Amino acid sequence: MKHAYTNGILLDGTEQMQPEAHKILLTEDDKIIAIVDEGVDLDGYEVIDLHGGYIMPGLVNLHVHLAGNGKPSAKPRDNAALVRKILSNGLTRAVAYRMSGDYADNVPVTLAADGSLQSYPAPSDVNESLRPLPLSGGWWLDRRGVSARSVFTRYTYAGYAALEEAPSPAQLLEAVIPGAQVTSVVTLPMTTQEAVADTAAVNAALKELKADGTLQSIVDKYITAE
Q1: First-to-last CA distance in the chain?
Q2: Per-residue pLDDT at 207
Q3: How many CB atoms within 10 Å of residue 62?
Q4: pTM of this structure
Q5: What is the DSSP string of 88-122?
Q6: Pick from 103, 116, 138, 213: CA 20 to 30 A from residue 37's CA?
Q7: Mean pLDDT of the chain
């Protein structure tokens, strides 16, 4: 998949770096392939508007003790609580969601808080394998990348994939089905691949969904898996 991150402030991670605006970060299959100036042709890219946010390299610590700072302590460590805290991070985890209707075959786009179009896919990034998988209780397993601000268009996956180029933002907004939106989102403590491989465990946990949105049985399973 190819993505273009626009309207952001770039920090490139070099020693003498300065914040740079009016740049576009291009990625393909999760790898950065170029940093270009605004105004280039973005045909074939899914455009993600950062709305003035910062984009920078990940911060990596090659040696870290997740349990603490390494100082001796007489207090017993609560490993279960530690794992729950680690798993509470939403990065890279699978998502289950509910919709206001049956829009599983409709391509979603994401709106910004002001109702403008924030992100949408390139036709080359859409295929039948990215359609959501049905779960129990009206839940669906996301494989496309939805959020609480995702809405659904009249474009089907097959129809959108057949387009030669992405519709304009105005055309996509016009294609949004009135009232067709994501109504609930739950982040799962597993990757999408793991969730696809074990939908029975996801279904069982969704039945135990707490008011605060946590899925305790799945968390406990991953604590004791070893």
Answers
A1: 34
A2: 79
A3: 4
A4: 0.58
A5: T--TT--EEEEESS--TTEEEEEE-TTSSEEEE--
A6: 116
A7: 82
